[in-house]
Amino acid sequence: MWQEAFRDTGVDPGFYLHRLRSLGEVLPWDHIQCGVSKEYLEKEWKRALEGKWTPDCRTKCLDCGVCDHKEVEPVLFREWISTPKEEGPTAAGKSDEIRRILIVFSKRGPAKYLSHLELVRAFVRAFKRAGLSLVYSKGYHPLPKLSFGTALPVGTESLHETLEVQWHDSLSDVTLKNRIGEQLPAGLEIRALEVLGREAGTRKNREIHYEISFDGVKAGEDRLERFLASDSFPVTKKGKKGDREINARAQVTSAYFKTRSTMHLALKTMEGPALKPVEIIQGIFHLSDEDLDGIDVLKTMEIQDSKESQA
């Protein structure tokens, strides 16, 4: 498209991208007053070509044009006093003991539109505003130790989401629940806190239950019966790397209509690529993309395997 626009207007992009410019040429950004004079930049360019070293301007003024030595001068830090390191528990309740906490929360209303990364940021910010001292990983890019049970699809509400977090604080669970809950955005609500022991293993979901609501969308029970009676039911999953077919029947453990417009759906946790509830519903009932606007998905429950011991 851009190449067609260049041809239609007679513009040669190579004139702007692939030619040497003289030092006296007027550049598109010359009207921006950045403080540093063009003469200084030209001098520094020549010094760079000659491999010459430029000293620190805090020891010798280089006349770059930024400082007028009346109102604007170089910022110098000649004295620096380090903050003493805290030792032992503080009055705020911080301790060296690391606590593993399992948080059960719901994600409803406007919060259902948060992506997984936005959800992570929302909790990290809420923890910091609540004054909690999070435990961070080691290395060059330390991150808070958070572990979510599942990554909920955008637009799906949930009554049961889990988050494991580690922190140093030793406040009571009731106080923590209230303090964190006050800092969370609308739609995120903490339902329970559970202290995990050091030897507690990682919990993995074995099965996830959903409630599907159809608002004006026709979903016949005959199609559901044919799906349940089949041994294999391929559904196309669209992705950035291309489309692929996945057997939806192998993922569904149970499905039935609770009312004419409400359906129960239980999905097995699969290794590798899996289908979202909406993708399975769309495949079973042959729905169009427009029909999906009339479907609401609510995650109601998680069934977990027995705890695995940590390595």
Explain briefly what this protein structure is.
This protein has 7 helices and 10 strands. It has about 300 residues and is of the alpha+beta class.
CATH superfamily heading of the domain at 94-196: Pseudouridine synthase I, catalytic domain, N-terminal subdomain
Global morphology: flat
The main sheet comes to: 8 strands, mixed
User: If you average the pLDDT, what whole number results?
Assistant: 85
Q: Please trace the helix and strand order, writing H or E for each element.
A: HHHEHEEHEEHEEEEHE
CATH domain class name of the domain at 94-196: Alpha Beta
Beta percentage is 25-35%
Estimated structural class: alpha+beta
Name of the CATH architecture of the domain at 94-196: 2-Layer Sandwich
Distance between the termini: 55 Å
Unreliable stretches, pLDDT < 50, 5 or more residues?
Answer: 86-94
Query: Helicity level, as a percent range?
Result: 10-25%
Total of DSSP H or I helical runs spanning 4+ residues:
7
Q: Give the oligomeric state.
A: single chain
At the fold tier of CATH, the topology name of the domain at 94-196 is: Alpha-Beta Plaits
Query: Could you tell me the radius of gyration in angstroms?
Result: 30 Å
Total DSSP E strands: 10
